[in-house]
Design goal:
The chain is α+β, with helices and mostly antiparallel strands and 476 residues long. It has two domains: 3-199 and 365-470, Zn peptidases (Aminopeptidase, 3-Layer(aba) Sandwich), CATH 3.40.630; 201-253 and 297-357, Alpha-Beta Plaits. It is built from 13 helices and 21 strands.
């Protein structure tokens, strides 16, 4: 049997309706990790996936760290074979059932306008379902994978993956592998296959001024009492320019490496139908839009408040507050982000402004596999062979994922092959996935998994189940 046969089998899984049936069952489980009433649904989802993995010869077990639940599946075909770790998350954000368009429910797979709608269809149930179908297609075609596969499914990614780092630290040997191949996030655009090599880091924090215990009449005290809102506006103006350029040197990398400029040179930011228009001139001068998102840092104010916006009164407010966020890339010291901000504010005479980490959001660290890494060229060649399209190579996702755990704790090269698109409306109502994108993605993953089983075509790696370094072969 051939590589093309495996790709055809994966696509037949779509045409026969089998893939839709599997995805329908997964979407029907309301696994909202932000909803404490859905704990039983979390376990139900893992049970459903366990049956799917066991059906094609994987050994499975449930792992727990505190209140966090994980499914671990493995199929070991030989100690000297390449070992690939897969990852996905089965939890979703709130369904917000009443916000979806008429005739569409978050917990039903609905087909309309050549798209599938449902909560998790893009983030992330549809994506790991595609990868599992690709594995099955290769196994059924070849009779074996030709490599060892380990797969980890977590159920708390939407609440910042509590327990994942501890799990990977505690079970480092169990999860040992030569490579991570996973799918999450959007492609660069709907019709262009994409590989991203890591993710931007993310730190969410609060900036606030508490001048006094209560508000005071602006007629009696105006001009005598400091106005926290005015002070706050000046503080923000020292952090970013009027055009959004970050003004704190510690918050940006020293340079944009040439290897990143090279891979981003042909990347065009396109949100597709319904996506926003890019504001020209916003951000760091001299960078292309792709370089801004995938190679640089961005600062945003997520929310801010002073006084009573819903019912303003003639009083000087006692305080001002904002929740802010810095998305940062490799080269920025995450431990110095908040100290650098405090030093910066003090230099500008704004000692009244206080800074504290947000109590509701965790820290994601920045990671990036070198675009010159042989695994990147290998994956690029595999996707070109399958689709006859040159994939976009993104040094890191613009958003944030727990990739640093795989890259740092498990010491893995990381390849992410996303199967959603920028306009998929993940985390919003009417989340969807184009059916033709699913077809292409099934072919891509079947091709990648087939090629991973061809030992004479993959880069050099150390077999994670053995003790010696083995050169598996040459690049295609």
């Amino acid at each position: 049997m051939t590589r093309n046969a495996a790709i055809a089998r994966a696509r037949d899984h779509l045409d026969s309706g089998c893939f839709k049936a599997v995805l329908s069952r997964l979407l029907a489980i309301p696994s909202e990790s932000q909803n404490p009433e859905r704990k039983l649904q979390i376990i139900k989802y893992l049970d459903e996936l366990r049956r799917i993995f066991e059906d094609f010869g994987c050994d499975c077990r449930l792992l727990t760290v505190g209140n966090a639940h994980f499914l671990y599946a493995e199929r070991i075909e030989g100690r000297k074979l390449l070992t690939v770790l897969g990852y996905g998350h089965g939890d979703v954000v709130w369904g917000h059932d009443d916000c979806w368009s008429k005739g569409i429910s978050p917990w039903l797979l609905v087909e309309a306008d050549e798209r599938w709608y449902g909560r998790g269809v893009a983030d992330n149930k549809g994506q790991h379902a595609i990868n599992i179908a690709g594995l099955r297609a290769v196994l059924e075609t070849r009779g074996r994978l030709g490599f060892n596969v380990k797969y980890l499914i977590e159920m708390e990614e939407e609440i910042d993956s509590p327990g994942l780092r501890e799990l990977c630290t505690t079970h480092k040997e169990l999860l040992s592998a030569d490579l991570l191949v996973a799918s999450d996030g959007p492609r660069l655009s709907e019709h262009r296959p994409t590989i991203f090599l890591g993710s931007r880091g993310c730190l969410t924090f609060d900036i606030y001024i508490k001048a006094r215990a209560s508000a005071h009449h602006s007629g009696n005290w105006g001009g005598l009492l400091s106005d926290p809102a005015i002070q706050f506006a000046h503080a923000l103006a020292t952090i970013v320019s009027p055009t959004g350029r970050i003004l704190i040197p510690e918050w940006i990398p020293s340079e944009l490496p040439q290897s990143l400029r090279r891979v981003l040179a042909d990347c065009v930011i396109d949100g597709g139908l319904g996506g926003p228009e890019i504001d020209p001139g916003w951000g760091e001068p001299g960078l292309s839009p792709a370089e801004q998102v995938y190679g640089w840092c961005s600062f945003d104010v997520l929310a801010m408040k002073s006084g009573n916006p819903e019912a303003p009164v003639s009083a000087i407010p006692p305080s001002a507050w904002a929740r802010c966020q810095l998305r940062f890339v490799v080269g920025v010291d995450h431990e110095d982000i908040l100290p650098a901000l405090r030093r910066h504010l003090a230099r500008h005479g704004l000692d009244a402004v206080e800074v504290a980490p947000s109590p509701d959001d965790g820290l994601f660290l920045a990671t990036r596999l070198d675009p010159e890494n042989p695994w990147v060229r290998w994956a690029e060649a595999s996707i070109i062979r399958t689709t006859e399209k040159v994939p976009a190579i993104l040094p890191n996702l613009g958003g944030s994922l727990p990739n640093d755990i795989f890259a740092s704790v498990l010491s893995l090269p990381t390849l992410w092959v996303p199967h959603a698109h920028p306009g998929c409306r993940q985390h919003a109502s009417d989340e969807h996935l184009p059916i033709e994108l699913v077809r292409e993605a099934l072919g891509i993953m079947a091709g990648l998994y087939w090629d991973l089983g061809e030992q004479d075509t993959v880069p050099e790696a150390s077999t994670s189940l053995g003790s010696t370094k083995v050169r598996f072969g040459r690049l295609p």
